[in-house]
Amino acid sequence: MTKTLAIRRPDDWHLHLRDGAMMRAVLPQTAAHFARAIIMPNLVPPVVTGAQAAAYRDRIMAALPEGMDFTPLMTLYLTEDTEAADVAAAHASGLVKAVKLYPAGATTNSASGVANFDNVRPVLEKMAEIGLPLCVHGEVTDADIDIFDREAVFIDRVLDPIRRATPGLRVVMEHITTSDAVDYASAQDDTLGATITTHHLVINRNHILAGGIKPHYYCLPVAKRETHRLALRRAATSGNARFFLGTDSAPHTDANKLLPCGCAGCFTAPNTMSILAQVFEQDGALDQLEAFTSLNGPAFYGLPVNEATMTLTKTAPTYPTHIDTDDGPVTVFDPAMPLDWSVT
Ligand SMILES: [Zn+2]
C-alpha cells in the first residue's frame, strides 16, 4: 500500500512574491500548497507604509487565481524614517503581521535598510509594546567581515544588543544558516523564533562552488559548510517550537541569475513540501514535519492553525524544472537528490 502522511495545511513564514508579471507566475505555486505566507516587503520601491502594504495586499489578491485559498500576511520594511504611529495603526487594523529589518545592503533590494540602529529604537519600542514581531535578516554588511561569518557576527553585534535594549520585543531570526544561530535561538525564551529554509536543509557551500559555480544555489545568507547544514537539520526536525518553515522562496529570472554578478535567491515554492518530506523521512522525523510546517509558526505569531489538511503520498513528485513568466523563465530549485513524496 502507498504510504501517506496527512498534516495540517502548511504556512510559509518568509516568502518573496515580487510584483507584476513575476507575482502572477509565482503566486499560484505557493497558493497551491500553503494557506498563508509572510510576504516580504523588499519591492522597488519597498513597502514602507501601511498604505503601501494595503495596496500590495490588494494586488496579490487580484492576482490570485479563482478558487485558490491563500491569505497573504503583510509586512512593513523598516527604514530609519519609519514612524511608530504608522506601524501601530497598520498592526491595529489587522493588516500587518510583522516588520522586516534589513541591514542596509544585506541582500536583494535592501538599500533602504537600516544603517544606524539608534534611529529605529522608537519603532522597536512601540512594537514590543503592541506585540508586533520584528523579522530580521541577520547578517552584518561590513566589508571587512567574511561573508561566511556575517550571521554569527550579526548575532553578537546587532541582534543580542537589540533584544537586550528592547525587552519583550518578539523577534524572528530569518533563514538561519549556522549552528551559531541554532545555538543562540535554542537558548532564548519564547519571544524569539527562527525560520529555516528548505534549501539550507539540503545544500551546503560545496553545492554552490565545487566542480563549477552553480548560480541557482546562490542565495543570501549563503549556504555554509556541512556542519552547519546538519545543525539546521537537527533543529528543523527536533519539534522544538522555536523553529519553523520560512522558505525564502525568491524567484529571479534566469537572465538575472546567470550573470557575472547574479542575483541571490532560490525558487523553492513548487517542490518545498516534497523536499521537506524527504528530509524529515531521511532523519526519521516524519512525525515532526507538521510541527515545522504547520504548527510552530502560527503559535509564534499568535494565529490559529489551519483547519484544512494536506496529504503527502510516497510517490515520485512531478514538478517543472522551470516556470515561464512574462519576464522570462525562472528555474525551480534542484534538491540534488531523488524525491519520493508528492502533495496529493
Ligand atoms: Zn528573503
UniProtKB/TrEMBL annotation:
Cofactor comment: Binds 2 Zn(2+) ions per subunit.
Residue positions where N6-carboxylysine is found in the record: K100
GO biological process: 'de novo' pyrimidine nucleobase biosynthetic process; 'de novo' UMP biosynthetic process
Needed cofactors: Zn(2+)
UniProt domain Amidohydrolase-related: residue ranges: 12-304
Residues at which Zn(2+) 1 binds: H14, H16, K100, D248
InterPro entries named among the record's database cross-references: Amidohydro-rel, DHOdimr, Dihydroorotase_CS, Metal_Hydrolase
Subunit structure: Homodimer.
Catalytic residue list: D248
Its EC number(s): 3.5.2.3
Residues engaged in binding Zn(2+) 2: K100, H137, H175
Organism domain of life: Bacteria
Cross-referenced Gene3D superfamilies: Metal-dependent hydrolases
Family matches, as PROSITE patterns: DIHYDROOROTASE_1, DIHYDROOROTASE_2
One Pfam short name: Amidohydro_1
UniProt-annotated binding residues for substrate: H16, L17, R18, N42, H137, L220, H252, A264
Pathway: Pyrimidine metabolism; UMP biosynthesis via de novo pathway; (S)-dihydroorotate from bicarbonate: step 3/3
Keywords in alphabetical order: Hydrolase, Metal-binding, Pyrimidine biosynthesis, Zinc
GO molecular function terms noted in the UniProt entry: dihydroorotase activity; zinc ion binding
Function recorded in the entry: Catalyzes the reversible cyclization of carbamoyl aspartate to dihydroorotate.
The protein's name: Dihydroorotase
Gene from which the chain derives: pyrC
One Gene Ontology CC term in the entry: cytosol
Enzyme class: hydrolase
Record PANTHER family: DIHYDROOROTASE (PTHR43137:SF1)
Record bears the keyword Hydrolase: yes
Family, as annotated: Belongs to the metallo-dependent hydrolases superfamily. DHOase family. Class II DHOase subfamily.
